[in-house]
Amino acid sequence: MKEFEETLKKIEGELLSLPFPETPNNLYDPLRYFLTLGGKRIRPVLTLMATELFGKDPRSSINAALAVEVFHNFSLIHDDIMDAAPLRRNKQTVHERWGDNVAILSGDVLLVKAYQLLAKQDPEHLAELLHLFNTTAVEVCEGQQMDMDFESRSDVRIPEYIEMIRLKTSVLLGCALEMGAIVADASSEDKENLYSFGQHIGIAFQIQDDILDLFADPEKFGKQVGGDVIANKKTLLNLKAWEMAGSFKNELSMLASEQNLEHKVQRTREIYEELNVRTVCESMMEEYYTIAMHALDQIKQPKEKKAPLVQLADYLMNREH
Fold first, then answer.
1. Strand partners, 131
2. DSSP code at position 88
3. What one-character DSSP code corresponds to residue 28?
4. pLDDT band at residue 146, thresholds of 50, 70 and 90?
5. Which of 201-223 are b and which e, b meaning 16 or more Cβ less than 10 Å from the residue's Cβ?
6. CA 126 – CA 60 distance, rounded (Å)
7. Which of 183, 248, 290, 296 is packed most tightly, with the most Cβ within 10 A?
């Protein structure tokens, strides 16, 4: 993955050099702090890879790539407030360090910055890029609202959950890829297949994230392990466990109000293991991965040019954090 690592370094350098005013400090210091926390930077890398896939210099889509990543970080800052999350990438979240009001306002600035970056792209592609970006931004908000609505519902079904993660997570991966293809003047069919690849990899990615939330190594995960369980969030593991619960239904119900959080996470993990929930969810993850790879196969480019995307997809499915 040498090519990926080099692209990642370039993206990281560009993000850290984004110009923010010095004052007011309480508005801009949180942004400088948050962007230095790192992250996978998968989305901007996908944009550059997509541009290169169709034979154009990846640097020609750098501002679109940065716009996608800046938008993603805006959404993370706001999501952390809504989730009352104490940690992001193993560091204090912005709202924990500066308070909710500062975090909201700083996040808003990042959203504006995303549009400023996107506006630097070639005017020839700007209308199509903006249409895709705006559609995706609305879908991400819809997905987040669905996620919050699920918290007060006891009748959430797995197809609804998959639609929620499609909107909240995977459409942005599809958007990142299609933006790179737009800049490279790819055909409509290739753009559609590339978007489908990103969308289905995104669903598989989120299922993997659900699994890691409970089963990851705490030293590598960078977030609170068991956070979804503590918050009683509807995840694929949770929904599958209730489908398969049998004699565990009463205990799972009681665990929802358990005040000893360490016991709550540990016992939930034990029950999921006894029900084989993790294996079932991993099987679903593989199904979406297969659909994604089929879409990638349909793109009319040589296999060797698609190899970096195949390698990146494999990396996403085998990560530990």
1. none
2. E
3. H
4. very high
5. bbbbbbbbbbbbbbbbeeeebbb
6. 13
7. 183
Element (H, E) at 91: strand 91-92
Tokens 């400090």, located at residue: 25
Helix (H) or strand (E) holding 309: helix 303-317
Query: Is the CB of residue 78 less than 8 Å from the CB of residue 212?
Result: no
Q: Which tens digits make up the pLDDT trace of 11-67?
A: 999 999 999 999 999 999 999 999 999 888 999 999 999 999 999 999 999 999 999
What pLDDT digit, counting tens, does each position of 227-243 carry?
Answer: 889 988 899 999 999 99
The DSSP code for 65 is H
Distance in angstroms (rounded) separating the CA atoms of residues 271 and 164: 25
> With the CA atoms of 278, 281, 285 and 288 taken in that order, what torsion angle do they form, in degrees rounded to the nearest 10?
170
- Taking a C-beta distance cutoff of 8 angstroms, is the pair 237, 211 a contact? yes
Tokens 């030293």: give the residue.
Answer: 219
CA gap 16, 38 in Å, rounded: 10
* Segment 86-91 long-range contacts (CB within 8 Å, at least 24 positions apart): 86/224, 87/222, 87/223, 87/224, 88/34, 88/37, 88/222, 88/223, 89/37, 89/38, 89/39, 89/222, 89/223, 90/221, 90/222, 90/223, 91/37
pTM above 0.85, yes or no: yes
Indicate left, alpha or beta for 89 from its phi (over 0: left) and psi (-120 to 50: alpha). Answer: left
Are residues 34 and 107 in contact, defined by beta-carbon separation less than 8 angstroms? no
